[in-house]
């Protein structure tokens, strides 16, 4: 009931007369101060850090010098020591030879203070050094012969980032951040070939939601082609391949081409037109309305919820000429969700990219409250169950899926310097 009241207030504030079109012709009816007041009243936290950027990772550039003579073939930057840890993420990698020097960029979680650089020889043996995150030049001059060229022990995986979206924009959300959940990773194959793995993890939204992904800093004209490994597509549906695509709801994108050009010419990848369909739903129709379950947001399976395998498609991006792909970090992904609201369509981006307006122009909101999307630099992130707030902090009391004192989402919301590792400490009966 409270959320319905906020919705009615919001519609009046936005000046909705049969539809929402927040363009320059509606300056007379849209009151941004009133809008922000309504959003703030619906906030699950007492106050929000006015300087919050909602970023949990930063991009760093490292110059790596392979000042050794051991038959080096490649270099990797890793989250953990591959000679002692059980698991380690590859945060950046590139071919290199003895005496070589190369620049690598990595997206580093702010909770991490130390990284590892590894030289890999033609036998797959590793020579490893550790270094502080803020270092700019990494070399191997201090490595002793007895410490180098050891066999790999860790299981190595490409770094993955988790993106969680709220479908309610421009309304206040329920802040469970599970309406669309994506897990992304990238691998540099060579100077013209970028491999991107896109995993659709959950769909907790109640309406049609589409998704694309902007490649920040790259123009569509720089790219020769984009293909999907195996010839598949999210649009083919999960377990319902070869079901006619026209069963999907109305298109939110103007085109279904894998490679598209945004409003400013930047490249973006088309992911899917309908998240429910992409997850694998055989959409049934009642009174010409699609019936949509919610996937992987409840541990129950019934008429409203279902647990399904995640869906993964691997995109191969081929550039026309050599590019500095080593400089393209996972943090430069800008996945976005298209969400219809009355007569227009909004783009849901993470806070950093909130002004991108990739596919269309619309009125930007400047609310200082919680964002409609979060990027979590933690492949094992456990998002909240349906209807469970990610983290309340009201009148000094903590609630929600991440409410552990000293490591809570609510505390981080109110002070961006605190609890920067909140996403590693869930309330286990509140998460999927």
Written account of the structure:
The protein is mainly beta and about 425 residues long. It has four helices and 25 strands. It is about 10% helix and about 35% strand. Helix 1 runs antiparallel to helix 2 (about 30-40). The chain is globular, with a radius of gyration of 23 Å. The strands form seven sheets. Strands 13-20-11-10-9-23 form a six-stranded antiparallel sheet. It has helices at about 1-15, 30-40, 275-280, 410-415; strands spanning about 55-65, 70-80, 85-95, 100-110, 115-120, 125-130, 135-140, 155-160, 160-165, 180-190, 195-200, 210-220, 225-230, 260, 265-270, 285, 290, 295, 305, 310-320, 335-340, 345-350, 375, 390-395, 395-400. The longest helix has 13 residues, at about 1-15. The two termini are about 25 Å apart.
Radius of gyration: 23 Å
Strand-and-helix sequence, N→C?
HHEEEEEEEEEEEEEEEHEEEEEEEEEEH
Helix content estimate: under 10%
Report the strand count.
25
Number of helices: 4
Strand order of the largest sheet: 13-20-11-10-9-23
Write a brief caption for the model:
By secondary structure, the protein is mostly beta strands. It has helices at residues 2-14, 32-41, 275-279, 409-414, and strands at 57-65, 72-78, 87-95, 101-109, 114-121, 126-132, 137-139, 155-158, 160-165, 180-190, 193-202, 210-219, 223-228, 259-261, 266-272, 284-286, 289-291, 294-295, 305-306, 311-319, 333-341, 344-348, 373-376, 392-394, 397-399.
């Amino acid at each position: 009931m409270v959320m319905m009241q906020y919705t009615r207030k919001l519609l009046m504030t936005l000046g909705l007369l049969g539809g929402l079109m927040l363009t320059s012709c509606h300056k007379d009816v849209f009151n941004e101060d009133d809008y922000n007041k309504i959003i703030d009243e619906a906030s699950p936290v007492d106050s929000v850090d006015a300087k919050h950027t909602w970023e949990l990772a930063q991009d760093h550039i490292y110059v790596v010098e392979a000042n050794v003579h051991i038959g080096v073939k490649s270099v990797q930057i890793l989250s953990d020591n591959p000679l002692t840890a059980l698991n380690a993420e590859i945060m950046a990698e590139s071919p290199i030879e003895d005496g070589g020097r190369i620049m690598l960029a990595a997206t580093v979680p702010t909770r991490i203070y130390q990284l590892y650089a590894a030289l890999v020889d033609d036998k797959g043996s590793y020579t490893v050094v550790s270094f502080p995150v803020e270092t700019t030049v990494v070399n191997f001059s201090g490595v002793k012969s007895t410490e180098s060229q050891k066999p790999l022990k860790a299981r190595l995986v490409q770094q993955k980032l988790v993106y969680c979206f709220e479908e309610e924009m421009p309304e206040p959300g329920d802040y469970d951040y599970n309406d669309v959940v994506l897990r992304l990773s990238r691998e540099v194959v060579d100077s013209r070939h970028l491999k991107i793995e896109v995993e659709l993890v959950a769909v907790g939204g109640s309406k049609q939601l589409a998704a694309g992904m902007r490649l920040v800093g790259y123009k569509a004209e720089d790219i020769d082609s984009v293909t999907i490994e195996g010839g598949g597509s999210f649009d083919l549906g999960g377990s319902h391949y070869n079901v006619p695509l026209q069963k999907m709801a109305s298109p939110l994108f103007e085109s279904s081409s894998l490679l598209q050009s945004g409003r400013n010419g930047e490249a973006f990848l088309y992911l899917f037109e309908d998240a429910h369909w992409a997850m694998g739903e055989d959409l049934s129709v009642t009174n010409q309305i699609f019936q949509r379950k919610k996937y992987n947001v409840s541990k129950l399976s019934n008429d409203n919820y279902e647990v399904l395998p995640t869906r993964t498609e691997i995109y191969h991006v081929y550039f026309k000429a050599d590019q500095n792909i080593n400089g393209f970090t996972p943090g430069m992904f800008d996945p976005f969700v298209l969400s219809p609201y009355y007569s227009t369509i909004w783009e849901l981006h993470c806070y950093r990219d909130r002004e991108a307006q990739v596919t269309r122009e619309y009125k930007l909101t400047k609310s200082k409250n919680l964002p409609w999307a979060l990027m979590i630099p933690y492949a094992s992130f456990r998002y909240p169950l349906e209807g469970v707030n990610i983290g309340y902090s009201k009148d000094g009391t903590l609630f929600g899926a991440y409410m552990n004192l000293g490591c809570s989402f609510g505390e981080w919301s109110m002070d961006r310097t605190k609890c920067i590792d909140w996403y590693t400490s869930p309330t286990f009966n509140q998460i999927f």
